[in-house]
Design brief:
Blueprint lengths: L3 H11 L7 H27 L4 H11 L6 H39 L6 H15 L3 H32 L1 H4 L3 H34 L5 H7 L5
The chain binds protoporphyrin IX containing FE (2 copies).
The site of one protoporphyrin IX containing FE (HEM) has 23 residues, from α2, α4, α6 and α8.
């Protein structure tokens, strides 16, 4: 008995639930890296391969002894832009896979860590039980923002895949154009989320939630 008791205690400790499950942490940081890569491709294309760079290409080629006209210079920048979009599409496939991973993970996460559970709990506390309303309101806003982000990510994945497979979807050209514009517009909403999220995390670190970033890395203590 004397040996079994500490053993049980040890197993109990091993089984203690972390604040953030490893699947959630894995998703979070890989998603961060892939999304940063995807945004970088957009930045490269908008900074390096826009129309103004045609003159740069023309001048550089002229300095190297070749004579090129505007159309030929445009073909070069367009080709380079397409190559970067190729990389964007690979990041896109990774984001689609990560979205699916996060969706499946939601079913397997410990009950208290499921996003929908946290949202329902905050909703109940704020609107029905009306207890600790300030905290419940904060929780509702934060988790509500995460839900909006996931819906935005789903929109990016669906519109992105439609664009990537436009040769096979039989979607009319003008509709594809609108899908691309919508896809591009949603990027600004994603950027908005990232700014709010980072500001929220920094504020939390300075106030009541000290250590949440390291919790998101090492899992944190059980709740
Ligand atoms: C957060 C994630 C994403 C961001 C911020 C993003 C952003 C953008 C932006 C700004 C454009 C240019 C739109 C325009 O020209 O008006 C674009 C194009 C595109 N994106 Fe995404 N995207 C993301 C995810 C995805 C995903 C998941 C896919 C799926 C494979 C994807 C596939 C594409 C394709 C195929 C294009 C068109 C490229 C071309 O013009 O050849 N994107 N994206
Ligand atoms: C592309 C950038 C990022 C995106 C899209 C993103 C997205 C998310 C999402 C969706 C969640 C909620 C996870 C869930 O419960 O389902 C989350 C949580 C979290 N993220 Fe990020 N994140 C980004 C960058 C960062 C960075 C750079 C940090 C650290 C400086 C960070 C720190 C955290 C922390 C601490 C949490 C847990 C907060 C909580 O419990 O409410 N994130 N992030």
């Amino acid at each position: 008995m004397a040996i079994i008791a500490p053993l049980n205690q040890e197993i109990g400790e091993i089984k203690k639930e972390k604040k953030y499950a490893s699947t959630a942490r894995f998703w979070h940081w890989i998603n961060f890296i892939v999304m940063a890569g995807s945004l970088l491709t957009v930045l490269i294309n908008s900074l390096l391969f826009d129309r103004t760079q045609r003159t740069f290409v023309k001048v550089e080629l002229m300095n190297a002894g070749a004579t090129v006209n505007d159309k030929q210079a445009a073909a070069v920048t367009h080709g380079l832009e397409d190559q970067v979009w190729g990389i964007h599409i690979y990041f896109g496939y990774a984001l689609a896979a990560l979205f699916l991973f996060r969706l499946i993970a939601e079913f397997f996460l410990p009950a208290g860590q499921k996003l929908l559970h946290k949202l329902k709990k905050a909703y109940r506390a704020y609107f029905i039980l009306k207890k600790e309303r300030e905290m419940a309101k904060h929780e509702l806003v934060v988790k509500g923002l995460y839900l909006i982000f996931y819906l935005l990510l789903l929109t990016m994945v669906v519109t992105g895949l439609l664009l990537a497979f436009e040769d096979y979807t039989n979607i009319p050209e003008n509709l594809n154009h609108s899908i691309k514009e919508f896809h591009g517009f949603c990027m600004y909403l994603i950027l908005g989320f990232i700014v709010l999220h980072l500001a929220g995390v920094f504020l939390a670190e300075r106030q009541g939630g000290k250590g949440i970033v390291s919790d998101m890395i090492n899992g944190g203590d059980d709740k």
